[in-house]
Amino acid sequence: LRSRRLIPSLHGALELASLLLPLLLALSVGLGADCHCQAPALCRPITHRPSPRLRGDVSIRDIINATFRASWLAQQVKLAKTQYMDGINLDKKLLVTFDVSWSPNCLGRRCYNYTGIADACDFLFVMSYGERSLVWSQCIAGANSPYTKTLTGYDDYIKIGINPKKLVMGIPWYGYDYTCQNLSANHVCTTAKYPCKDAVYCQVAYQMIMKQVNSSTSGRLWDKIQQSPYYHYQDQAGHFHQVWYDDPQSISLKAAYVQNRGLLGIGMWHANCLDYSGDAIDKQQTEEMWKALKPKL
């Protein structure tokens, strides 16, 4: 059997019918006599030269219509499923964006003309994470994206004259694992000597955190000041670790600010940090993280 696995890059719909016709004709070929596939459609032989991609274009005048857009997306999802494709790639052309630090205040020598950059772009993606990458005070573990500190960054961008509709909040779907030189009774994890840099912690994807937090020595804890969850665990060498991360509770708080302050939107870094397997618990955790991006106010 030859594989009919396609890697689509869907750029639209106007040319879709003409492109699909040869493929649909091929699918009408009868099943092989000795087909052992659970899905018989997989046993239909390819009678033409297979194409690695299926392309098309969508007119901007059509795609801005919500009814058309919903119908078109449903058609593409159905097509991807019936043709056993790997996925769908929506390639938006001519969109100019720029990733910026969580604060415009010249942190880590990132001193740029942010208002000029914003004027030249469609929007700025504000990376509201890694906010403890340069800490010159006492080195203690802390939130990757602390609530007040994060929102102050957006307020500062707006104060220098950037329209809120030019700002997209970027939140982390990963956490930081700190190795503690000392872990106090009130949960203060002291790390390597300052200045605290990225070397004092390592990144951990949300899906891995969810597999560890319930078996940790502390269980899930909540910091009321930073509005962020964290927990402790002990490794095989006997060293204590403290892990800070974001979950639906902390993300919902920041997502509410997006709506209340009138920002353009919210995004994450990055989607692969979630578990998309068929496990029921993993599926629920993944759905809750996506829903947290648009909280009910």
Characterization of this structure:
Strand 9 (228-234) and strand 10 (240-244) form a beta hairpin. The longest helix has 17 residues, at 66-82. This protein is 29% helix and 17% strand. The protein has 2 domains: 16-82, no CATH class; 97-292, no CATH class. Helix 7 runs parallel beside helix 8 (280-292). With 297 residues, the protein is α/β, with parallel strands linked by helices. Mean pLDDT is 85; it is low at 1-33. It is globular, with a radius of gyration of 24 Å. 26% of the residues are buried. The strands form 3 sheets. Strands 7-4-10-9-8 form a 5-stranded antiparallel beta sheet. A 4-stranded parallel beta sheet has the order 1-2-3-11. A two-stranded antiparallel sheet has the order 5-6.
